[in-house]
Design a protein that fits this description.
By secondary structure, this protein is an alpha+beta fold. The chain has four domains: about 130 residues, Immunoglobulin-like, CATH 2.60.40; about 130 residues; about 110 residues, Immunoglobulin-like (Sandwich), CATH 2.60.40.740; about 110 residues, Up-down Bundle (Four Helix Bundle (Hemerythrin (Met), subunit A)), CATH 1.20.120. Helices cover about 25% and strands about 40% of the residues. Helix 4 runs antiparallel to helix 8.
Amino acid sequence: MKQIITLIFVLFTFSWVSAQDDAVTFEATVSKKTLGINERLRVEFSMNQDGDNFNPPDFNNFRVVAGPSQSTSFSFTNGKRSFNRSYSYILQPTARGTFKIGQASIEIDDKIYKTVPVEVTVTAAVENPNAPPSADQIADENLHLVAEVSKSNPYLNEAVSVVYKLYFSSTVSIENFQPLDDPKYNNFWSQNIDIDQLQVEQGTYDGKRYRYVVLKKVVLYPQQSGELNIEPLSLDITVGVPTSRRDFFGRPIYEKTHKTVSAGSRKLNVKPLPTEGKPEEFSGAVGQFNFDVTVNKDSLRASESLMANVRVSGKGNLKLLTLPKLKTPSALETYDPEYEENVRVSLSGMQGSVSEDYTIVSRYKGKYPIPAVNFTYFDPETKSYKTITSKEIEINVLDGPTNNVAATQIPSGTNKQEVVSIGTDFRFIKIDPNLTSKTKSNFFKSTLYYVLLYLPLLLIPIVILARNKREAYVADVQGNKIRKANKLAKKYLSAARKTLGNKEAFYVALEKALHNYLKAKLHIETSEFSKEKISQLLAEKDVAQEDIHEFVNLLKSCELARYSPASEVTMQQDYDKAASVITKIDKQI
């Protein structure tokens, strides 16, 4: 008995310590953020650790009808103890307008914690103040699409990242969504950043805890100064909203509703680059860069070639800048450069390098300097122009003919230089080739003669056989329908097949494939995808009832499988069912 008591004490102590290690949360929630003056408001202050000296706010413009009512709950999950205590009030507004529920405070472990103020709007009286909020109202209060912009006042050609997040509370569930209108980034250079898989994360929006999903990431480089608009992203979302009804196990039954949410238009005030101190050779580079000019060798023989590399690396608008041109003496033959790009784009902007490789051919003996090259860029962090100068490079041609032109003469451009013959550049065709003739063989009665003679006779039965097979194929109407239906099923289900093994992604793709098939065949929109409507439309197309029943059951299976465990075998079976039912329905339609 002593050992049992000791074990219970140790487990309780361990659980209590684990709970103490959790971060303290103390927050305020309201039953609704918009209400009529004849309605009542429930305000709840909850914490995840026990505390003392709770002080409620002054409920200005509200009258306390009931409260505070206190509730405490404990739970153990995987050996970990969780605790929750809440104080709730029922308030009646006394005036119309927008008011704030102030900060409540509590003392936990000798520290004072305060809630974030909550804003509430009181409108005119409503007809039925005791009616529960509609599904649309609940969705509006618990669903927010936000565009988070990294900079609102960037310089011209400075990177700006935009992250679109969909915030939703634990009250509702997201069933499906699709974009209605993608933003057009006019006056911006833009690049989307791929998101491999949508992940649900925890965050805070408007002072309240939410779950959120990052839907889209894009990096923008403004190409024009002044006020620029970022168009909004709009989504059509199918939302599951809890009702007052319960299922057999006491869980709330969810009602589906469609909501259109928008991230809203965002404005950027793009600053022009300063004109003061702007160098003449500045060509639009903005960021933080390194610059150098290198050659693969500085000593060579006449008629040999070398490679000169002009390279800019670092962080900034690498894909948009212009590299400075390399100038060489006229005695060196320089060809147009080859451009090379090694740039990756992340939320912080472009990073990597861009370069140009020049092929240079030496023609004459001597020493030839390649002069220094300047590269100028604007640094938005220091708000100043910076210039990097490369080192002068001397090319030593060891042997070859001498040049009468001054070796140090530098051409004005970098185009390919005129080629000068040094006596060994060209070899002439011999005028006396000493050609010999060969006696032609007799074609008549040769092997090739007999092959060409009898080949048409051999091809005749092959052509007849191929034609008969083609006619049989065309005449097989039922077989062609089956093959066409199978091909169609594979087309719609290809995305689902790629995600076999990933339960959530597979059933999302499978459900989308079934919906897309119906949209293509029945010409209906996503908003009409109720099971009753689908059954009615398929019946009007004279589809067999057992096939309709199988299709609808498959849609239900996709919905339920997201919230229940499923093995790869089950997923394969559902995939095979989907392919089969699409084939059968398509043959009948």
